[in-house]
Design brief:
The complex is a heterodimer of chains A (about 350) and B (about 450). Chain A has one domain: ABC transporter involved in vitamin B12 uptake, BtuC, CATH 1.10.3470. Chain A has a two-stranded antiparallel ribbon. Chain A is built from 14 helices and two strands. With about 350 residues, chain A is mainly alpha-helical. The longest helix of chain A has about 40 residues. The longest helix of chain B has about 45 residues. Chain B has two domains: about 350 residues, ABC transporter involved in vitamin B12 uptake, BtuC, CATH 1.10.3470; about 80 residues. Chain B is built from 19 helices and no strands. Chain B is mainly alpha-helical and about 450 residues long. The radius of gyration of chain B is 26 Å and the shape is globular. In chain B, helix 16 packs across helix 17 and helix 16 runs parallel beside helix 19. Chains A and B meet through helix 4, helix 11 and helix 14 of A and helix 5, helix 7, helix 16, helix 18 and helix 19 of B.
């Protein structure tokens, strides 16, 4: 390969593939939570973004506490150590909302719209709690090493013009996502509780007839959802930065990921997360420099060659959502019908 | 019996609201009370719009923010003076690109209708969209940058029609209705929570569009100083008739003091009264709109059309079996409700005198409106109006009350205690929490809302 082609490849890896992988992992973990709740409680949980914010906030608070005691796990961020505590707190909170809010409507067999409105109420309350406790400002809680490879070191190492920088947070995100997804699938495929969950999600009446305890399934769904949401929120906060408002804005890409993949289908949520993430990144990336490397000299583009301005990234998830709903309403993995 | 009970409830509830305004007027100030009242009317109209969709027809639209913002854009496009330089700079290119855009979309729609589901349809639609997009950008990009570079500090956009801003209330309704038609065509017929997600997405896109397309709306540079349908305070303060009127109004207070203080006090009073007078003018206009929309909504709900809508809401399948066009009715009611929200959006921008796209947040412009409808009583128009006022009052007053409560609760702490300082700083966010709590409590213990839906039945049934 010529150096130009290599440069172009490194450029795309640095600005599209690495961020896309990290963002996709975060979306996949979040969308898994939405899909699990949909599969068991059968409603679109509007409070999910706030659950992620709550979990991330807990992780930040415990991180600060650990830092104040001088505990750290260099070179990894302390937040990883705080995660189990944060997960426990978020699970407790999720179970509390289920008991205080959703259980009542489950008993009444209310329509999904009622559940959604209730989840909007929960969303308001969680949003208030998060803002009340931690405020609305940016909170940076990443510590430890910042980079696995620095762009400058990469350039020195390879002698290329373009550098490749990988942040520790991006590496952790992908590794953690892979481990979690693996564990989740082992759980769903191999354990009794996991099989019960899948049975309940596929056909509620049949599952009830087979003696599956619905309350137990719902409980497990909340525990898994809260765990995934806390981890996804914390990873997102480590990677970008923690700001309560951004988690609300994640709601749309999360829903899009869950629906595109086929709502109620865990595999679909993961695929959906990466589809949405890569679409957002590729459509809003300015290809000028990339094209300059690969086209013959004298044919370089004048403009930025950006398909859509970055501010339209919501539009990307939305357009994919609409196209999928029109072309294949059940999503890629044939999830619940529309 | 039931009817009397309901009217009584309505009278009591509205009296309580009126009382609350009197309390605010005397404790805080009448200016504050009127500001809250005016925004309360706008909230009530938005709630009416959502009620038309959710209460009449059971459509789950959480895109209110987008339709309100479109109304706001209408206010700018109707009232701002046109910028001829911008039109000459990029006008024809823009016209070409918009024509292209429409042509591409219509080609896609035609192909979609003429082909059957499958590979051929997907390939041909892609073959239209991909090259079409680049041709569109070829004309559009130079046009928008040319327009945006015309005196960017002051204009940098095409301007509007330079008409009185009152027209924009109607235009705003049409803008929102047009958008609702497009949205409804694509997303109605989806399951209720999918429709919610779809409309949430649409509203975010509308806001992104308004923030970004500087050539049309100046984006985040904001459009300020919109013209007004009511007099300006400055002019009132110079108007002799108004000064005389203020003097007459406060005769007793003015006559009690010496002549040299008289002029100073009168001047002070004229300034205060001019502000209140302007707000009262807005209130008058807004009340007229509110009453018109409320009466039309009540009439519509009482008509055969309203009964049909409720029949569709309560059982789509049987209404369909009776020959009702469910999708068509849904589209109709979706457009109507969105138009009402659009009108309210235009009124809001008129009241503010500026369009600031950065201030549109879904919590405030979508979900808060939903709380109003649910708390007021979905399906009851008067209930939505009540919910609009009540929730708006709580939303505004929760902030000072919350700060006061935290101040009292933490008064035993030291003034520089970090916990106290943090709590004081974030106390304002408690109102979000309170909103959620109110919504959940009403849903749990009084799901029909403060003023329940009235179902008229024939005697003897």
């Amino acid at each position: 390969m010529t150096p130009d082609l290599l440069n172009a490849l490194v450029l795309i890896t640095n600005y599209v593939i690495v961020p896309g992988l990290a963002y996709g992992s975060q979306l996949a973990l979040g969308a898994l939570g939405i899909t699990l709740i949909y599969g068991t409680l059968r409603f679109a949980n509007f409070a999910h973004g706030e659950t992620m914010a709550f979990g991330a906030m807990m992780a930040i608070l415990f991180t600060w506490w650990l830092q104040s005691m001088g505990i750290s796990i260099q070179p990894l961020p302390t937040a990883l150590l705080a995660l189990p505590l944060a997960i426990a707190a978020t699970i407790a909170f999720a179970l509390f909302t289920d008991k205080a809010v959703y259980k009542f409507y489950r008993k009444k067999r209310s329509t999904s719209a009622v559940f959604v409105i209730a989840s909007i109420g929960v969303m308001f309350m969680m949003n208030g709690i998060v803002r009340f406790i931690i405020g609305t400002n940016d909170r940076n809680f990443a510590d430890g090493e910042r980079y696995i490879i620095m762009a400058r070191d990469f350039k020195n190492m390879t002698g290329l013009d373009e550098g490749l920088g990988i942040k520790v947070s991006q590496g952790i995100t992908v590794v953690v996502a892979v481990i979690l997804v693996g564990a989740l699938f082992l759980f769903l495929q191999k354990t009794r509780a996991g099989k019960a969950m899948r049975a309940f999600s596929d056909n509620e009446d049949l599952a009830l007839l087979s003696g599956i305890n619905p309350e137990r399934v719902v409980l497990i769904a909340w525990v898994i959802t809260a765990t995934l949401a806390t981890i996804a929120g914390t990873l997102y906060g480590l990677d970008k930065s923690f700001k309560p408002f951004t988690f609300f804005q994640l709601l749309l890409p999360l829903f899009a990921a869950a629906i595109v993949g086929g709502i109620g289908k865990p595999i679909g949520a993961i695929a959906g997360g990466f589809i949405i993430a890569f679409s957002e990144v590729t459509v809003t990336y300015a290809y000028k420099k990339f094209l300059t490397y690969i086209v013959p000299e004298g044919m370089e583009p004048n403009g930025l060659v950006q398909l859509l301005s970055t501010d339209y990234k919501f539009a990307v998830s939305f357009i994919i959502l609409v196209v999928v709903l029109l072309v294949r309403p059940t999503g890629i993995m044939k999830g619940g019908s529309v | 019996m039931i009817d009397i009970n309901n009217s009584l409830r309505a009278i009591i509830s509205f009296s309580v609201i009126a009382l609350l305004f009197v309390v605010i007027g005397t404790v805080q100030s009448w200016s504050v009370a009127l500001t809250i009242f005016n925004l309360g009317i706008i909230s009530a109209i938005m709630a009416l719009g959502v009620n038309i969709q959710w209460g009449y027809a059971g459509l789950f639209n959480v895109g209110t923010m987008g339709f309100a913002a479109l109304g706001g854009v209408a206010a700018v496009l109707v009232s701002q003076p046109p910028v001829p330089e911008a039109w000459t700079a990029g006008g024809w290119r823009l016209a070409v690109s918009i024509a292209l855009f429409i042509a591409i979309i219509s080609m896609v729609v035609i192909v979609y209708k003429k082909t059957t589901k499958g590979l051929i349809r997907n390939i041909s639609i892609t073959a239209i969209i991909v090259p079409g997009y680049f041709v569109f950008r070829f004309f559009f990009d130079p046009a928008s940058s040319a327009i945006e570079s015309v005196n960017p500090a002051v204009t940098g956009f095409l301007g509007g029609l330079g008409l009185p801003i009152l027209f924009s209330w109607i235009v705003g309704g049409f803008f929102a209705a047009g958008a609702a038609w497009l949205v409804g065509k694509v997303s109605l017929g989806l399951r209720s929570d999918y429709l919610a997600i779809a409309t949430l997405g649409i509203s975010e896109i509308i806001i992104a569009f308004i923030k970004n397309e500087d050539w049309l709306t100046r984006g985040v540079k904001n459009v300020t100083g919109l013209n007004r349908p009511v007099p300006y305070e400055i002019e009132l303060q110079k108007n002799d008739a108004f000064i005389g009127w203020v003097e007459w109004l406060n005769e007793s207070a003015l006559s009690a003091i010496s002549a040299d203080k008289h002029t100073a006090l009168l001047h002070q009073m004229v300034i205060e009264h001019s502000g209140i007078f302007v707000k009262l003018c807005y209130s008058g206009l807004f009340i007229a709109v509110l009453i018109t929309i409320l009466m039309l909504s009540v009439k519509a709900l009482d008509s055969p059309w309203g009964r049909m809508m409720r029949a569709i809401r309560d059982n789509e399948i049987s209404a369909g079996a009776m020959g009702k066009n469910v999708t068509g009715r849904h589209l109709q009611v979706f457009i109507l409700g969105s138009a009402v929200v659009g009108i309210a959006g235009a009124m809001l921008v008129t009241l503010d005198g500026q369009l600031t796209p950065g201030t549109y947040h879904p919590l405030r412009y979508t979900f808060l409106i939903w709380v109003m409808v649910i708390v007021g009583g979905s399906g009851n128009n008067l209930g939505s109006v009540l919910g609009g006022f009540l929730i708006w009052l709580v939303w505004i007053e929760a902030e000072p009350v919350g700060v006061w409560a935290i101040d009292q609760l933490t008064s035993w702490m030291d003034g520089s205690n970090p916990i106290r300082l943090h709590l004081m700083e974030t106390a304002q966010h408690m109102r979000v929490f309170i909103m959620g709590l109110v919504l959940l409590l009403v849903m749990r213990f009084h799901p029909e809302g403060l003023l329940p839906e009235v179902v008229k039945r024939e005697e003897g049934e």
